[in-house]
Amino acid sequence: MKKEYTVAQLCEHELNGIDGKTFRRNKAKYVSDLEEKYHVEILGKRNQIFVLTPKKKSLKQLEDETFLKILNCDIGKRDIQLLKLILKSLLEKKVVPTHEELAKLGRQAGIKNIKSKTTVTNYFKFMRDNKIIVPPLETPVWVYDENVIPDYDKETGEIYPTYYRKHVNRIYFDYAEKNVGSHRKRLSKDSQNAIDKAYKLLYNEKHQRVIIPMVKAKVNKAVIKKKRELLQEKVLQEVGKAYGLNYCVVIEEPIINFGMVNELKELFGITEEKQRITELDINVSHIEVVNINRPVGISMSELEQMLEYKKLINERVQLYKEKESALPLEMYEKWHGIEFEQQLMKGITEINSSENSNDFNEANDSAVKVNEDNHVVDTCDTQDDFKKQLAAFKFKSNKTVNDGTSLMLSAFMNKQIGA
Questions:
Q1: Which residues have CB under 8 Å from 409's CB, separation 6+?
Q2: How confident is the model at residue 62 (pLDDT cuts 50, 70, 90)?
Q3: Where would I find the H helices in 37-139?
Q4: How confident is the model over 356-372, as a mean pLDDT?
Q5: Is the pLDDT of residue 56 over 60?
Q6: Rounded to the nearest 10 degrees, what angle do helices 221-242 and 303-321 cross at?
Q7: What's the pLDDT band for 82 if we cut at 50, 70, 90?
Q8: How far apart (Å, rounded) are the C-alpha atoms in residues 12 and 379?
Q9: Which of 10, 162, 298, 407 would staple 5 via disulfide (CB 3.0–4.6 Å)?
């Protein structure tokens, strides 16, 4: 069906309400845009009449109409192709969704008028205003201290939350040196999980030691916020360095309105198999996140110190296996607690049958016989217990095995009779 418009009518109904002067200055451009949907015929020279005959809609036009229907809002003069590119990129999860990377991706796709990341920033603002991108869920958290009166509503008595915890997916990525060839590489799912676990472990401990006391002391909230940001950045770089990243960065993943996600995926032809095909994969099979069970507040909290602590225990256990340690088991249990014993028992399954074992059996049988005069002792349990302790009590010095056996035997029997 043909439509006839004057310049003023054309601007109002077909060109998003631009004024006549703007149309005349860029007449060729606007006519070219109209020709994507219509056959355009111009009648007259001064008071021109524009006759528009609709063309048969292409697949691209049908897709654009479906896309606008899903968004359910007026996009105004904004570029529909840029909106589609941003939302498709967020769903595909192929690139790091920073505004800089999305602007670069848009220019590579041939989308015009993307001067900088500010263009993408403005589009994100539009999508948030129209609930296309929604904020993350936040839950209140109360930090209780019987010595501190919390903030509360003086009229209702309601206690205000100490802070709010965000529930949002975090994206970790590696950022190359800031130069002409700078780039951001998204990490694989396994790498993300490993780094996230290490980051949370370290940050939670430091949060308890540094931030919570500030909250309880009612330090100015702006000061606490600044301290928390510095602490997060410090822990993040420690973890990134440990995992071999150049410069580790984390951002919150934008959340697309759940009511639109499935329709957009269907429109863009996105399936789970197509996602994350360009991720940077880091081999994390050799990396262990060390969780040291100790009270919050001990100074040894840096990642490198934790790894050194784990390494020290492993080295001392290895000395036991090689029978080169000159210290009794009690000393190492005093230093390392139950963690040392657990690690040790993984490697000690039996005592080698040798001349030393024969010496031990003779000495132990004799000790049990003597002890029976005063106490009833289970021979099997006593031998097993004695074996464990003797296995950890070897000498680097020139003392003989018999000397060591006699000394251990004396200490062991005193322990049994309560001396």
A1: 363, 364, 367, 386
A2: confident
A3: 59-71, 80-92, 99-108, 117-129
A4: 45
A5: yes
A6: 40
A7: very high
A8: 101
A9: 10
Residue 49 CA neighbour count, 13 Å, CB half: 6
Q: Does residue 159 register a pLDDT over 50?
A: yes
* pLDDT value of position 299: 39
Cα(101)–Cα(116) distance, integer angstroms: 10
Sorting pLDDT into bands at 50, 70 and 90, what band is 216? confident
CA distance 105 to 95: 9
List Cα–Cα distances, 202 to 195, 257, 395, in angstroms.
11, 32, 38
What contacts 155, CB < 8 A, 6 or more positions away? none
Cβ-Cβ contacts under 8 Å for 12 (sequence gap 6 or more): none
Determine the residue type at 88: K
Q: State the amino acid at position 2 in one-letter form.
A: K
Residue 375: pLDDT above 50?
no
Partner residues linked to 165 by β-bridges: 139
pTM of the model: 0.54
Coil/strand/helix, residue 240: helix
Whole-angstrom distance, CA of residue 87 vs CA of residue 55: 28
CA-based nearest residue to 206, from 87, 301, 315: 301
> 37 near 64, Cβ under 8 Å?
no
Number of separate helices (H) and strands (E) present in the chain: 17, 10
* Rounded Cα gap, residues 258 and 36, in angstroms: 33
Name the strand (E) or helix (H) holding 133: strand 133-134
3-state secondary structure of 180: coil
- Spatial contact of 85 and 109, defined as CB atoms under 8 Å apart: yes
- The total number of residues shown for the chain amounts to 419
Please give the Cα distance from 253 to 125 (Å, whole number): 15
Residue 38 φ/ψ, nearest 5 degrees:
-130, 160
pLDDT in the model for residue 254: 94
CB atoms near residue 36 (< 10 Å): 10
Give the pair of three-digit tokens for residue 400: 């003989």
SS3 248: strand
Other CB atoms within 10 A of residue 240 CB: 22
Is-contact 120 103, C-beta < 8 A?
yes
Alpha-carbon distance of 303 to 201, in angstroms, equals: 10
- For the record, the structure tokens of 217 come out as 């002391």
